[in-house]
Amino acid sequence: MKKRTKKLLHLDPEPAVGFVALLRGVNVGRANRIAMADLRGAVERLGYTDVRTLLNSGNVLFRGTGGDAEASISSALADLGVVTRVIVLPVADLRAILAAHPFPGTATDPARLLVALFAGGAPPPRVAALAAQDWGADRMALVPHAAFLWCAGGILESAMLKAFTRAAADTATMRNWTTMTKLCGIEPQTE
After folding, report:
1. What domains can you pick out in the chain, each with its CATH number?
2. Strand partners, 150
């Protein structure tokens, strides 16, 4: 007769959570260049798991158990000669931000809809003042931790985007709707 043993269920006190790290201004021009394989390696050496990158612009998905991922990733990047702001948030929080999309039906081109995330969560007062302005066909809306920017005539032509970039300075990093939804595993649709 076989002896039955009871399987013990091991519960981690802090289970791993999916996070996204967004690096500001990486691989744009000649400054702050980093290969995505090197970026993945740096994040893995910090003890994070399931590390993946998306595109070549500093988008990292990983699993971890908390701690100050922004500071540790920033430090690891500085060791590689890349000095940049890193914004980290749980993927679930990014999904909640995207669910607050304020322009369904208006923002019809995902390449022209940008989502900016703010370091520390809150936009600087200069950005809040811009959101109250009339930008013609362009639109800007602030939601908790983020801003949505619809550049109706394209991102290169948008006076609103230029003003936002100056006002936000290095307090924010932005991606287009397609990239943000891919980071969340959501199909890239604007409605």
Report:
1. 17-91 (3.30.70.1280), 100-184 (3.30.70)
2. 113, 139
